[in-house]
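Here is one record:
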Amino acid sequence: MITFTSRPCPVCDNTNKKLLTLIDDVLGVARIHCVKCNCAFFASKPRFKPVYDLKYNLHFFREGDLLKAKIMAEKVATFARSLPQPVSILEAGVGNGFTLANLKIKGLNAEGVDLTPEHCDFLQKYFNIKVCGGGFENMTGSNIYDIIYSSHVIEHFFQPLNFILTAKRLLKNKGYIIIDTPDLDYSNNLDPNWHHFKTRHLWEHQVILSEKAILTLAKRAGLRLAIFEQHRAFNSFQATLTNDN
């Protein structure tokens, strides 16, 4: 039997059963739609956690992935140059390393953080970029970066608010968080076969957001949603949050 009220909505804390609907049963783990904030999430932690190691990330050297990394680098670089210099940048979840490498070529002060030492060593060796291991949520310190950006990372968090709060802690005053993530509004009316639901690992995308959902998370964290852009070609959105309230 599937139960989908085992935890509140991880975006808005909704527990009203009338505002929680079942999207799909993923091998006994219910994927739920929260009508209140328009997000999709797993009702309980999956039995098997995806491993985001070097082997996993080597998959993202496809032409489309490299193109998107270049687009992201251009966007971050343009944004960075509009701010008082010098600007410090952190990429949370480096993936194939191309965004960070492009930023370095542009002469920007950018570094990254990822999970496994093997993956970080690979990126540092082949792209000569600075990447620390241990995971974004485990970073220490505060008030360090002017810009924190991530591409397709927050949806892997069981509790996405933790990602936002970590970014806020690491952010300097009047800093910016740029998040690129799948957009639930492109899910073909919550089609269980949508490609951001049917990932390589069945439980890979823990929480999928929308404009309303990212706005909700920003408000809960005491941040402001400054820019929101949808990208139909990638079924994603880019949201820029700021602590300049």
Remarks:
- The chain has one domain: 50-242.
